[in-house]
């Protein structure tokens, strides 16, 4: 059997994509609440369009999402029915510190997550908690400029100290920042960055990156001090870039764009800024805002494991001007002519998961955790809300099969696998409900209409069978 007996099978969600309840029980406003559905979604996510209040011209899917805030017991019961060993969820920072700079946390927010964790344990499910899944309190953006400001370290430290203390014994597995490299590609979404006119974008982004990396190391330090059983991980939006062909300049380009994303994990896992990044910043005349003691904190507080999302591989070409493009998770790439694509243009490459796993394990020699993987598709339910999603089953079976090979044939140390959007939720990339990933259909459309009724899909029973067999039975019966 390739997987350990205690392999952590489960599913993953993010607070801003499923909870709703944006104004419930003292919760404050976050950047992720303000990213609307429609044409302005990307200008706002990129930090190019300042948008720090709700208005009547946009629809904000995160406001209510699938209302897990009021349905979480029902949803956890469905996860338990599937046999989940773990459930990855994130905390909404503004439920715990509504503005981000309060001296005392919001008890209602702390109690909400405590109740969820206790119910998870009652159901035999191990919580896997993302501390920051793109959340940044709007108050901190307005008053401090988001993660460009070093003062964010104090606010983040207060958050992590609060949750590590409150949830000691309830949560063992933690992720400091979701897809930390998204900061490079969507600065407002990744770090609450809104650019001022004439600002050096790269300088702002890399300053914010240093602060987030430092915050991650501080969280790791505090997490280990409060509970030596805590396992703290980092999280990458992964998927290797392949060279378009064996032309040396394309191979070099693929190496370069891979490094652009991997440098975050180099710091979090190895404890040092890599030389290739320092040289690039030198060429760009960018000085990292490193203060006394920073490098020691990074060096002494590396993560226990490396987690990542994988949806597709990517392809790199030195000269992209006339190349076909493919969509992808937050950032696109040159299209790979050997791969098919999903309805949203994301190329499908199960072997790429094995390749990516080997890249990360060879590079870091730390346990891996696949915390996002899945197929976004348009599901058509019957009159009872049931979806026969054989396409999703095929996608996941092929990816799990390659994951097994990475463990069994290549020797990769893998802690677990949590499929993305185990229950239908709002898509982070498009803001749509119609881009569905779940094993459970939620009756809600792209504009907030629907009963919110939950109905298991065909893939629900299939994943139940996968977990029960510890990944041995991938048949679609």
From TrEMBL:
UniProt record similarity statement: Belongs to the glycosyl hydrolase 1 family.
Transmembrane segments: none
Enzyme Commission number: 3.2.1.86
Organism of provenance: Lactovum miscens
A GO CC term assigned to this protein in UniProt: cytosol
NCBIfam families reported in the protein's UniProt record: PRK09593.1 (NF007158), PRK09852.1 (NF007356)
Hydrolase keyword on record: yes
InterPro entries xrefs: GH, GH_1_N_CS, Glyco_hydro_1, Glyco_hydro_1_AS
Name of the protein: 6-phospho-beta-glucosidase
Annotated catalytic residues: 372
């Amino acid at each position: 059997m390739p997987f350990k007996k205690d392999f952590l099978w489960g599913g993953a969600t993010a607070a801003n994509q499923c909870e709703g309840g944006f104004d419930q029980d003292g919760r404050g406003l976050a950047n992720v609440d303000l990213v609307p559905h429609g044409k302005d979604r990307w200008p706002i996510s990129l930090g190019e369009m300042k948008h720090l209040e709700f208005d009547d011209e946009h629809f904000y899917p995160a406001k209510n999402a699938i209302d897990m805030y009021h349905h979480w017991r029902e949803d956890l019961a469905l996860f338990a029915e599937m046999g989940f060993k773990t459930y990855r969820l994130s905390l909404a920072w503004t439920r715990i510190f509504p503005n981000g700079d309060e001296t005392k946390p919001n008890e209602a927010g702390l109690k909400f997550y405590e109740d969820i964790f206790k119910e998870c344990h009652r159901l035999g499910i191990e919580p896997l908690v993302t501390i920051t899944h793109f959340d940044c309190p709007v108050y901190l953006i307005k008053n401090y400029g988001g993660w460009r400001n070093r003062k964010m370290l104090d606010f983040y430290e207060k958050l992590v100290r609060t949750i590590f203390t409150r949830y000691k014994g309830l949560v063992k597995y933690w992720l400091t920042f979701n897809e930390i490299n998204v900061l490079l590609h969507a600065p407002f979404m990744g770090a609450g960055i809104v650019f001022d006119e004439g600002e050096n974008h790269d300088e702002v982004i890399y300053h914010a990156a240093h602060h987030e990396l430092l915050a991650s190391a501080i969280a790791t330090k505090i997490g280990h001090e409060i509970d030596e059983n805590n396992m703290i991980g980092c999280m990458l939006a992964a998927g290797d870039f392949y060279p378009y062909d064996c032309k040396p300049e394309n191979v070099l380009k693929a190496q370069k764009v891979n490094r652009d994303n991997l440098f975050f994990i180099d710091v979090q896992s190895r404890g040092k800024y890599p030389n290739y990044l320092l040289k690039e910043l030198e060429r760009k005349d960018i000085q990292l805002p490193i203060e006394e003691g920073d490098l020691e904190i990074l060096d002494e507080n590396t993560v226990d494991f490396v987690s990542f999302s994988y949806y597709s591989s990517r392809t790199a070409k030195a000269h992209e001007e006339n190349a076909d493009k493919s969509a992808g998770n937050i950032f696109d790439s040159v299209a790979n002519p050997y791969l098919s694509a999903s309805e949203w243009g994301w190329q499908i490459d199960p072997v790429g998961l094995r390749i990516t796993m080997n890249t990360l394990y060879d590079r870091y020699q730390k346990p891996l955790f696949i915390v996002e993987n899945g197929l976004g598709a348009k599901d058509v339910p019957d009159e009872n809300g049931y979806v026969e999603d054989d396409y999703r089953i095929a996608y996941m079976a092929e990816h799990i099969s390659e994951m097994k090979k990475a463990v069994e044939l290549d020797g990769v140390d893998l802690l677990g696998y949590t499929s993305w959007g185990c229950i239908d939720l709002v898509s982070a990339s498009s803001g749509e409900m119609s881009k569905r990933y779940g094993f459970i259909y939620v009756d809600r459309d792209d504009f907030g209409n629907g009963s919110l009724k939950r109905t298991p899909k065909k893939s629900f029973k299939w994943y139940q069978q996968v977990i029960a067999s510890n990944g041995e039975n991938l048949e679609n019966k």
